[in-house]
Amino acid sequence: TRVPVFRVERGGGVTYHGPGQLVGYPIISLDVMGLDVKQYVHKLEEVLVKTLRRFNVKAGTKEGYPGVWVGEKKVASIGIAIRNWVTFHGFALNINPDMSYFRCIRPCGMQPEVMTSLEELLGTSPRMEDVKEALIREFETEFSLKLSPFPQDRWKAIAESVDL
To answer: What is the pTM of this model?
Structure first.
């Protein structure tokens, strides 16, 4: 299977994004939120850890290895970029992706076998919509924000107005 490859400017090394992942690219002004980069990454990790807890998965973090782990297996990756103290890029939580794609790369500079998914951990896959709703709730709590749907037609105008 051919997979398109894109070079992007963000931390975290090579990764894979595809169906079965919940990918979030928060756009947040760290200045407005009063956060430094380390605090922001920690908050993203906390959102993911608490989301997984809602599905009875005991996850945590590993010092020096951004992302979320269950034992020695990585279930969520974080790779961010920041311009003018505004974040972009973000995280990918593996719900039920085709894990074989990770064998084609060294995800985040590690051996492919380190990667796992909720489906592998639980033996069954929760519904993507259920995980998304749980993650939104945890994000709102962790960042003290209220999220609301954003009209798709407004993205282009915003993208053109931001000087990154």
So the answer is: 0.84
